[in-house]
Write a structure and sequence with these properties.
Layout (H helix, E strand, L loop, with lengths): L8 H16 L1 H8 L3 E6 L2 E6 L4 H20 L4 E6 L5 E3 L26 H12 L8 E4 L6 H15 L5 E5 H13 L3 H9 L3 E5 L8 H16 L3 E6 L11 H7 L3 E4 L5 H14 L7 H10 L4 H18 L5 H11 L10 H11 L4 H4 L6 H17 L4 H7 L5 H17 L1 H15 L2
Parallel strand pairs: 2-3, 5-8, 5-9, 6-7, 7-8
Antiparallel strand pairs: 1-2, 3-4
Helix pairs in contact: 1-2, 1-3, 1-12, 4-5, 6-7, 10-11, 10-12, 11-13, 12-13, 14-16, 16-18, 17-18, 18-19
Length: about 450
Amino acid sequence: MPLPENLEPIAAWEAIRTELRSKLGESAYAIWIAPLEVRAFEGTMLLLAAPQETRAWVAKRFGRTLESCARAVLGVDVQVAVEGAGGGQREPAADVDNPVESLNPRYSFDQFIIGDSNRLAHAAALVAAELPGQAYNPLFLHAPPGLGKTHLLHAIGNYVFAFGGSTRVRYTTIESFTNHFISALNTRSLERFKHSYRDVDVLLIDDVQFLASKAKTEEEFFHTFNAVYENGRQLVLTCDRLPSALVSVEERLRERFEAGLVADIKPPDFSTRVAILRKRAMLDRVPITDQSILEAIAERVTDNVRSLEGALIRVVAYQSLTGRALDLELTRTVLDTMYPLRGRPSLTVGQIQAIVASHYNLAVSELVSGNRAARIAWPRQVAIYLARELTGTPLQTIGEAFGGRNHATVLHACKRVADRIAADQDAEVELEELKSELTAG
């Protein structure tokens, strides 16, 4: 897909720099990325200029990051090349393969937004960082992609580096572990490989689901796991599924994964999604004064944190590239392209009020009144919850439809319903029946 014809290189590069700063942290950004300048877009090639003495290093060390950030902002398949400030030889961007994975300094406990969906995982990770090997060992974090597993893994490592004194920590992915193992076999350096993973106090391992179908790696990983665990050292693993679902991994490993604490992370609820966006905007120094912008993104993007932050980045990039005001209208324009409303345009708040009122033998006038009697309060909360979940109506508009209530009251009602259906199966069944009635046909 070609770049837009009206793309302004300087504005595009500024948007890409914002994303790079958030990915790399201030220190790495200031040293290596800030000196870069945009030369031109040639077809689908972003051409950057770097100081001659750092050109090759920047291309090799930060190449894939440069390309992924450019693609995230522009939404097209961009390649990046880096040349010296005076022109001359170009370096295609391609990171050096390095068996030692580095920790992302931005992934800290302070930057992790806590909600009901991740509270247990966060608390367990913090204990593992504060008291390595003394509780929750191994700690197994599982969730679908994009919900914060890797963030917590890096947060543990960063915490240990900052406060653990001489405590030794190592972070790796299964892919890197495999590549390092194969390299050690080929270079006859297996003993050095073993020491590099087994002689640490905290071993952090990402994406263990990729152990499947790697027989030799799995055998080596089994012995590494045992060596670390039996010496009382901390193991933390992440996976996109439960240990019992790793059917291609040997049973003896699945049993070891289940021997400690298995903590899951679920998709964030609405209020947590808004908090995540607010934190990201603050970190990226994005001046968002209208809360409805964040709420519009949080309403539309519900699957994972990565998609949520990606939507915010796209909105900000679109504003930077077009020069339009960063407002709710622009936000909806971008969201309609990325996350169009799916099959709900015909359902209105009024229809939901009528059906819910009838279900509970109430008049709609009672539902929208100020009466707080229990027989009315619960149906009102249910109707508000369904209006938010089944329509694209802004929170403020929903509140106005229920007697002029504000968006904070709408959020409170939604939380009350979410909490009750989580604890009361009858309430959950009742809500699903109402949903089916509202969405039928």
